[in-house]
Structure of DUF2066 domain-containing protein:
Amino acid sequence: MLKIILRILISFSFTFALFNSVNAAEVTQLDEGVVAVDSRSTALRSQGIKQAFEDVILKNSGTQSALSNEKIKQQLNSASSLMTQYGYFEQDSQLFLKVNFDHKRIINLLREAGLPVWGKQRPLTLVWLVNEHNGERDILNDASTVEDRNVFNRESAARGVPLLFPLMDLDDAMKVGVNDIRGQFTENVANASLRYQANYFVMATIAPQGSGYQYQMALYPREKDAQALQMTSLVNHSGESASADEAVAAMVGAISQYYVEQYAVADSGERNTTKLTFSEVTDIRQLVAVERYLAQLSAIKHASIGKIQGETVEFNVNLFGDEADLHRLMALDPRIGILNPITESSLDYSSFEPIEASQKETQIYYWKGQ
């Protein structure tokens, strides 16, 4: 597993931390944009700051449509007012401009614009891709150095979508072949994916067609629904593109859009509230850690301690969206454990007033930490 973690390093402005015992990734540097420039001239710097601003908006909202929002377009003209610092660096003889923005003000801007906000904790996606070059087909693997892998890295960075690739060692090779992916033999690929502890996996192909490329992809959850006879894809996307780069961008964009719908939270404009219960809080350090954790969740406006009884702490929580949004986010986080499963009825909005136990089952969490 350590070998996998060490290899999953995204170049330039995007990094994420994997939790090696669970399936999650924490995206960092969401306030940073990196843009290739030809010189350090004032004009190119101004243009680069605007591009970096758009990149940061895209990473924090997750949706391309955010760049068409009127409030975002207005702010673009004064993007430097949200900038905290900038600098230059060179890599492989190319000059880059790195720009950092005030993350809190970026999030406030998205909220004011009525756009979704995608937090740091994001799904980890394993990509099984059959690539075709010069009539030969192979599976893009973790050690691949071909340009296609670099394109995935760049799109992963631009979208803030953590991706990893199979090792294609003997274990993988015995379970998955090119025809399994091309033929959508989902069960074989799903079984091979379990060792990687990813939240989702993708089966995809890119192949030359005429003067362009044809691509197709399907996104699947880590495990099939207990009630289902077979795995069902969550997203299917296919099309033609002028280049392999455009094909990769289209696929990563489709993955990103699905995750935004599931995990990004916009302000509903309603005063939705709920209670959160954490058990096994044994000392002040754990309590502070839980408070900090809740404060940074994109689904929460405000959280405060409502009651402490022994090792159990109850929080009063104001929400941007609804309670289902909150529990989806918390289920994704490896630092959070669940003591009892949530029921369908408990996804309704709640208030700070007492609720009879027969009406609502309380979700109880505990803090596992890093």
Q: What stands out?
A: The mean pLDDT is 86. The radius of gyration is 22 Å. The chain has three domains: 2-11+120-263, 32-112, 272-367. DSSP finds eleven helices and 17 strands in the chain.
